[in-house]
Design goal:
It is a single chain. This protein is α/β, with parallel strands linked by helices. Helices cover 36% and strands 22% of the residues. It is built from 13 helices and 20 strands. The strands form five sheets. A seven-stranded mixed sheet has the order 19-16-15-12-11-10-20, with helices on both faces. Strands 1, 13, 14, 17 and 18 form a five-stranded antiparallel sheet that branches. Strands 6-5-7-8 form a four-stranded antiparallel sheet, with helices on one face. The longest helix is centred in the N-terminal third of the chain and has 21 residues. It is globular and about 100 Å long. The relative contact order is 0.10.
Amino acid sequence: MIKKSKKVIAAGLASTLTVAYMFGSFAQAEESAEKNIAPSTAKDKLEAYIKFTQILNVIESQYVDEVNTTDLVDKALKGLMTNLDSHSSFMDQKEYKDLSVQTKGEFGGLGVSIGMKDGALTVIAPIKGTPADKAGIQAGDIILKINDTATIGMTIDESVKMMRGKPKTSLVLTIIRKGEPKPLEVKITRDIIKIQSVYAKTIEEKLLYVHVTSFDQKVVEEVQKAMKEHPEAEGMILDLRNNPGGLLDQAVGLADLFVDQGVIVSQKGKVASENQNYMATKKGTDTKMPLVVLVNSGSASASEIVSGALQDLKRAIVVGEKTFGKGSVQVVMPMGKDEALKLTVARYYLPSGRTIQAVGVTPDITVPLGTIEFIKDNLSLKESDLKKHLESELAKIDGNTTTVTEENNATEVDDSIITEDQLYLDLQLKSAVDILKALIITQKGKN
C-alpha cells in the first residue's frame, strides 16, 4: 500500500482522483467501523472525486487571490486527515523533517502527554519529575492557549511542536481546570526529559507498591526486579495513575507477569496484516499474589491495556477513576521522500472484546482523588516514651523554666517506604491498601 502511495504522490496533480480514492477508502473504513455505514458504491466514489476536482478548479480560476495548487491540495489533505480522528495527520515536507529531528535528536520538552477529548486539547498526564509536573500541571487540564496562540482547531502534532524547543527556554500555558473559576496561566521552562519509569516502595513491610509512570523499554525488567527484591511481599499495588502509555510490548509484558494464559490484548484494523493477538505465557508468571491496580483519568493507552486486561482476566481489582480512553494504533507512512501520513490503522481490544478508544476502563471500585482527615491520639505512647512525655508535661504545670532537653529522634525520610501519614494524604492509595489487605485475608482463608 505504501509503494502505491508513493507512485500516487509522485504523479502529481494528474492523479488527484487516485489520491482521493485512497484516502476515501480509509475514511469509509473509519465510519463503517463506528457507524455501520455501508461502503460507497463505485458511482458514489466517482461523483465525490469529480466534486473535489470541480471545487479545486473553481478556486483556482475565481478565488480573489492567486493560489498554488499544491498548497490547496496539501490543505485539503490536512483537513481530511484531521476529520478522520485526532491522531491522524498529513505531514508536509517541513513537518516530516521536524518529526525526523525530534525522533533522532535531543530536544527540550515539558514532560506532558496530551490528547484530544471532546474536541479540546487535554492533558492526559504530566510525567513525574518533569517541568510540567513541577509546575503543577494536572491530568484533565484543558490547554486553552500556548503562549498567545489559541489551541482551538489545533492538531495534537501542531501543539506538540509548539511546546517543544530549546532547553531552558520558557513558555506559558493558559489552562482551564475543573473547580477553578477562571483560566490559569502556568509558566514552564523546557528541559531535557529524563524519566524514571518505575518506583518501588513498601507499605507496612508486607505490601509492595510499584508506581509505573510511563512504559519505556525497561518497565518489565524493573518491575520484575522489584518483585525479586521483595520476596516477603504478601500483595502488590500497581499504580498506573497519570501514566500516559508508551511501548506496547512493555504493556503486554507487564500484564504477562501476572497471567499465564489467554489473550492480553488484540489489535484489529482494516488491513489483515494489522490484526494481531498478544498472548499470555506461563514463563515467569505469578498468578497467586493478590493484586490491586490504581488508575485515573491520566491513565491512557498502554496503562489501559494493562489495567483492562488484568480486570477482564479476573487477575486484579482495579481502583480509582475512569481512564482517558486512548486505544488506537498509528503508523507513519512515507509518501515520497519528503511527505508522510500519520494514520490510525487499528484499534486495541481487551480480552473481553471491548474497546478502549473513547471509552476507557471503568474501575471495579471507583474512588475519587482526596485525603482522609484523622485525629492522632497524642497520649498513645510506648512505655519507653511515657516517662519523658510526663516529665515534659509536669514542667509546663510547675512553671519550671528549666528547658527539658529531649533526644532528637528525627530521622531522614525513607523514600523506600510509604508511611501511614502519606497514606492518609492519598484516599485512592489508602483504599487500594485496604482492598489489598482484604484480598490477602480472603486468599489465606482459601488456603
